């Protein structure tokens, strides 16, 4: 009887060991499957499954440059609150049915793939000034769902704005941005659009890497290099949406 009990105990120990081993293997397999799934999703880039019907596309304007082109999308919000981190996908075509340019591939700079904030009732000009590979004869836009936020500080203020002539890129806009928010802003985008007779004729964007909280940081400089016509001949509208709403 004692010997039989010992044998049974040995079998039980072996079963437990095998179960533990299998559990570890299963855990590793699950981790590998999750990693593979994430990699597959990332490789697809940005995919907007559902559009935000609160955001109306008023116009899509292509602009021709020397070494790059641009697309300006004018959007009006009908939402009752500010919308934050709004994904926007751009597909530009020449004559064919396949887009020669899109901002959706994995790894595209986040400043080219979203609207940081669009306020209720606001008409906003979003600019992609990195369109290469051809001139967009037509473009398609998909705007995804934004996250509602009822309490959003004021956007930064642009100071000391002056035009200057760049020997390579032509007329550009230089200035400084001052933070009106209690939160530090990172990778802040300055969108600038020039219109003549209500028509978009030039546009550009600039990225400010870091802007300290209100009262704690100095204004930071920026320079917008335009695509299209001479911006000085038009009426300039600038947008500087906040990128960070918390510490």
Radius of gyration: 26 Å
The tally of helices reads 1
Write the CATH architecture name of the largest domain: Sandwich
Find the structural class using helix and strand composition. alpha+beta
In the CATH hierarchy, the third-tier topology of the largest domain is known as Immunoglobulin-like
- Low confidence ranges: 1-20, 38-42
Q: What is the chain-wise order of helices and strands?
A: HEEEEEEEEEEEEEEE
Task: List strands and helices in order, with pairings.
Elements: H1 2-44, E1 55-63, E2 69-77, E3 82-93, E4 101-102, E5 114-118, E6 123-131, E7 138-143, E8 147-149, E9 157-166, E10 170-178, E11 185-196, E12 199-211, E13 220-225, E14 227-228, E15 235-239
Antiparallel strand pairs: 1-2, 2-6, 3-4, 3-5, 3-7, 3-8, 9-10, 10-13, 11-12, 11-15, 12-14
Description:
- The protein is an alpha+beta fold and 247 residues long.
- The chain folds into 3 domains: 1-44; 55-149, Immunoglobulin-like; 157-239.
- The protein has one helix at residues 2-44, and strands spanning 55-63, 69-77, 82-93, 101-102, 114-118, 123-131, 138-143, 147-149, 157-166, 170-178, 185-196, 199-211, 220-225, 227-228, 235-239.
- The strands form 4 sheets. Strands 3, 4, 5, 7 and 8 form a 5-stranded antiparallel beta sheet that branches. Strands 14-12-11-15 form a 4-stranded antiparallel beta sheet, with no helix packed on it.
- The protein is globular, with a radius of gyration of 26 Å.
- It starts with a helix and ends in an 8-residue tail after the last strand.
Which tags fit this structure?
247 residues; alpha+beta; Immunoglobulin-like; five-stranded antiparallel sheet; four-stranded antiparallel sheet; 45% strand; disordered N terminus
């Amino acid at each position: 009887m004692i010997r039989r009990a010992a044998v049974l105990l040995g079998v039980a120990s072996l079963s437990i060991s095998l179960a533990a081993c299998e559990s570890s293997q299963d855990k590793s397999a699950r981790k590998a499957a999750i990693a593979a799934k994430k990699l597959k999703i990332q490789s697809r880039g940005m995919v907007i499954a559902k559009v935000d019907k609160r955001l109306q596309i008023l116009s899509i304007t292509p602009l021709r440059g020397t070494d790059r082109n641009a697309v300006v999308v004018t959007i009006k919000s009908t939402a009752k609150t500010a919308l934050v981190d709004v994904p926007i996908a751009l597909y530009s075509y020449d004559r064919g049915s396949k887009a020669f340019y899109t901002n959706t591939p994995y790894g595209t700079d986040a400043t080219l793939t979203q609207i940081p904030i669009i306020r209720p009732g606001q008409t906003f000009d979003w600019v992609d000034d990195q369109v290469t590979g051809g001139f967009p004869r037509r473009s398609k836009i998909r705007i995804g769902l934004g996250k509602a936020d009822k309490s959003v500080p004021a956007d930064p203020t642009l100071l000391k704005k002056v035009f200057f002539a760049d020997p390579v890129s032509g007329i550009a806009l230089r200035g400084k941005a001052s933070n009106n928010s209690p939160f530090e802003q990172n990778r802040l985008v300055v969108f600038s659009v020039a219109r003549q007779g209500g028509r978009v004729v030039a546009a550009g964007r600039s990225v400010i890497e870091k802007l300290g909280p209100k009262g704690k940081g100095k204004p930071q400089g920026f320079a917008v290099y335009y695509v299209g016509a001479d911006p000085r001949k038009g009426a300039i509208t600038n947008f500087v949406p906040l990128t960070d709403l918390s510490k």
